[in-house]
Amino acid sequence: MSAFGKRGVELLKEVVNHEPDMLPSYNEELVRLVFSEIDEHYVQAQRVLSAVNCNQQSQQEGEEEDTGEQAEGGGLQDKPADAVAMVIHYESIARNKRLLLSYIAQRVERLKNVRWQHRELPESVAEACSPQELEFYHKYDQLLTKHMSKHEGIGHDLTLDILPPGDNFVAVRVVRDAGMQLFSSGPLGLHEGACLRLPADEAQPFLISGVLKLDNRKEFI
Amino acid sequence: MLDLLHPLELFSEETPVETTFRFGVTGLGKTLDAGSSEHDVQPGASVEAPLWLVRPLVGRSMASIKLPTIYGERYQRKLNAGADCVSLKNLAPYFYEVGNKLNEMWERSPIFSDFLVRTFRSRYYELISKGLNSMTGEEVLLLCSKLSVEEQQLFEGGRVSTVCFDSWLQMERPAAARLPQPRQTRKRSAEQAAGQPTLKQAIRV
């Protein structure tokens, strides 16, 4: 039998030690090995239990033959070493389950952050997800979109300003051509290299998509 | 105590503790003790087992533990002697978390509780608090090599808040610099031109 829960810890370390904003590839092989360790513990526990039951039965039959009365005992109480083994197997199963749940919780938390920060699932993240995680992301996306929609929800995009803006307007620099775009003040050409002052909420989608970059030069502010 | 699924909680529970099995264990001799050739663990035998496995066994009186060396008398004396005498990063990366759990197993011994609190207090004051106020880059690196994971998190949190506070102060400065300068100089020169005594001259008189 493999060392207790070592693979689960390895799995969890993999996601914790990865960059905070990125998602490492879903390690299907290691997850499978953790499940096989759980199965192994279950089989061993069943074996111990059946051995104890067999012993108990044969002891009872022997005593009934000798005395003619129904005998009691002969279970785990009489074999404390077996009881300890049962506890160890049970705790190992619970530990592996906890490690797997923590692994999944860490990944799900990162997927949620992707939805709030990038609005859509980047291809690099989608490739790192398992089919179940992709399904979770799409359902979470649908729920959040419904919650923010005008007709069924609050009618306000909550992902726009995660941090409160210091000013209504932000100084930005165009880093990628995006042609003519319509703003509340009218149409405006976003040509590479141009420095502009735009309303913070209207600039946010372009900042996320990488068309604009915040300009922190003091003379501009 | 951290969250049930918190990774640091799970990692801290991997700490090995010397455990003596009261009744032995059936069938797990080679798994629990890699060096053993026996199928079962004999009653009274000692092996190193992870903390998560030891807790339920001690709770059921199936095993007893020996305190890890870092919590023993020798290290207690060292830690009492000076906060920076012991580098917890290598010896016990989860010193407080594991210490709390061991203390729970001992039904919260007041002496052990005092030792943990005293160690935290002295190390917080001597290492973390002083490290945040006056230290060069090299000194900070040296300090980080001595801190446990919990202390490291506390130090990082303090460092981030100090940086945020400094940047907030710096943002205030340009605004203050843009304020119109008092017109005293111009006034004074006008007074001088009119032959009237300046404030400095008036004080001298």
Structure described in brief:
Chain A: Residues 85-150 form the GINS subunit domain. The complex is a heterodimer of chains A (221) and B (205). Chain A is mainly alpha-helical and 221 residues long.
Write up this protein.
The complex is a heterodimer of chains A (221) and B (205). Chain A has 221 residues and is mostly helical. Helices cover 56% and strands 11% of the residues of chain A. Chain A has two domains: 6-148, Methane Monooxygenase Hydroxylase, Chain G, domain 1 (Up-down Bundle), CATH 1.20.58; 169-220, Ribosomal Protein L9, domain 1 (3-Layer(aba) Sandwich). Chain A has helices spanning 6-16, 28-67, 80-118, 123-128, 131-148, 200-209, and strands at 169-174, 179-183, 186-190, 195-199, 212-214. Chain A is rod-shaped. The model of chain A has no long low-confidence stretch (mean pLDDT 85). Chain B has two domains: 1-66, Ribosomal Protein L9, domain 1; 68-168, Up-down Bundle (Methane Monooxygenase Hydroxylase, Chain G, domain 1), CATH 1.20.58.2050. Chain B contains eleven helices and three strands, in the order αβαβαβαααααααα. Chain B has a three-stranded antiparallel β-sheet, covered by helices on one side. The interface between A and B is medium-sized, with 30 and 29 residues.
| Radius of gyration of CA atoms of chain A, rounded to a whole number | 30 Å
The strands making up the biggest β-sheet of chain B line up spatially as: 2-1-3
- What is the total tally of β strands of chain B? 3
CATH level-3 fold name of the largest domain in chain B: Methane Monooxygenase Hydroxylase, Chain G, domain 1
Report the biggest beta sheet of chain B as strand number plus sense, adding barrel if it closes: 3 strands, antiparallel
Within the CATH hierarchy, at the fold level, what is the topology of the largest domain in chain A? Methane Monooxygenase Hydroxylase, Chain G, domain 1
* Structural domain count of chain B: 2
Please give the alpha-carbon distance between the first and last residues of chain A: 65 Å
Poorly predicted regions of chain B are 173-191
